[in-house]
Amino acid sequence: MSKDIYAPGILAGRLDGAAYAEQFADLHPPLDPHAALVAADRCYFCHDAPCVTACPTDIDIPLFIRQIATGTPDAAAKTILGQNIMGGMCARVCPTETLCEQACVRETAEGKPVLIGLLQRFATDHLQEKGGHPFTRAAATGKKVAVVGAGPAGLSCAHRLAMLGHEVAVFDARPKPGGLNEYGIASYKSPNDFAQAEVAWLLRIGGITLHHGMALGRDVTLADLRAAHDAVFLGLGLGGVRALGLDGPVPEGARPAVDFIADLRQATAPQTVPIGRDVVVIGGGMTAIDAAVQAKLLGALNVTLVYRGPRSRMKASPFEQDLAAAKGVRIITQAVPMRLHGNGALREVEFRYVNADMTPTGETLRLPADQLFEAIGQTLQGDDLPPLDGGKIRVDAAGRSAVPGVWAGGDCATGGDDLTVTAVAEGRDAAMDIHAALCGA
After folding, report:
1. What count of Cα atoms within 13 Å lies in the side-chain half-sphere of residue 274?
2. Which domain holds residue 217?
3. Can you name the residues that pair with 280 across neighbouring β-strands?
4. pLDDT in tens, 266-298
5. Does residue 135 form part of some domain?
6. What pTM did the predictor assign?
7. Which residues face 232 on adjacent strands?
C-alpha cells in the first residue's frame, strides 16, 4: 500500500469487527434451486430472442434457461461457457440491467425482466463447485501461442486456443492472474476469492502455462515473443491512470481509485484497509462508483462522488448510481476540480461548477477531504506495442494488429467498450482467428 493512506485521519478499523462481514457480503446472493426454477419459468423462450442480441458473447440465453427449467443446470453451464468461459464472473459483474435484461421481453412488457444474470450464476456455480470442466483439448497442433495479460481477454483467448490443441504461454506483470477480475472489481461483487477459483477452474483445460512478473517491454519484448511463438495475443488491459492535471504538489491522501480498489481486493480483511473520514471521489464510471461505495462500507463518514458532466453522461449505469446513493454516497455533477488544499496532508478539494457544455458558471465549491480517489480514466502503458489509434492498439474486426502475427483484444485494443464480457468475447474471437491463421481452418 502507498504511504499516503496513512496520512493523519486515515485509519483502519473504523467499524466494529462484525460489521465488515455484513458490509462486504455478496451484493446479489445466489439463487437456491427452487428460486432458480421459479425464475426460469418466467422466460418466454423467445425465437430470435432480443436478450441474445444484447449479449456481447452471444450466449443462447433461452436455451440455457430452458435447461435450468428442465433440471439440467450443468448442461446450461456448458451452453454458457461455450460462448463465455468466464461466465461465472460475468454473471456477477456484467451490467445485465443495461444489456440482456434491459432487452428482455418481460422487461418491455412488465418492467421486470427474467433474472438472467442470477440464472447464469446459478448454472455456472453448480458446475464449477462440482469441479466439472465440460471441455477437452483437441489433438496437439504443434503450434505455440504467447498471450500477454492474464485478464479476461487473455484468459479467454488462452482457454480457447488450448481447447483447440495449441500450447499457450501466458505472461502477466502481476503476481496473480485474473487482471481486472482479481485487482479491479469491488470486493462485494466477487467475495470469497471467486476470481482465483474461476482461473484455477479455467486452467483445468491444460496446455496453458502462466508466467508471472513478466511485463511487456520490461521483462520480455514483442520481438522475442514473435520469434519464439507462432502467434501473439495482447490482452494488456489499461495499466496507466490519468492524472487530474492540477498545478502544485499532490498532498498525502490523494491517490488513484484503482490502487485503493486493488489494495482492498488483496487485503487479508477489509478492516485492515485505512479509510478517511471525509472521502471525495472524482469520476463517473464504474471505478468511481466502486471506490465510493467501498469507502462508505469501510466506515467513511462522508463520501462524495463528483462528476464533471450531467448525471445522464456518467458511464456508470443507473443501477450502479442508485446503489451508491443507497449506500450513502453523495453525488455531485457538473463540477470540475480546480485545486487540492492542504499543508502536506489533504484538507479540501476545490471545484468550479460548469454548464452542460463545460463552460464555467462562476460558482465554486470546496469539499472537506482527508482522502481523494481519482477515477477519471485509465491509459495504455508500454513502449513495445503495435501501432496505436486513439491511445489503444489498432486492430481490425478479427483482432489483428498492424504487426503480422500479433492480435490484441480487451481494453487495450480499439473497438471495445471496456466491459469484462466484451473483453472475453474479443479474446475468444481472436483465438478463433489465430487458429484459422495457424491451421488454415
Report:
1. 17
2. 144-239+380-439
3. 304, 372
4. 999 999 999 999 999 999 999 999 999 999 999
5. no
6. 0.95
7. 146, 406
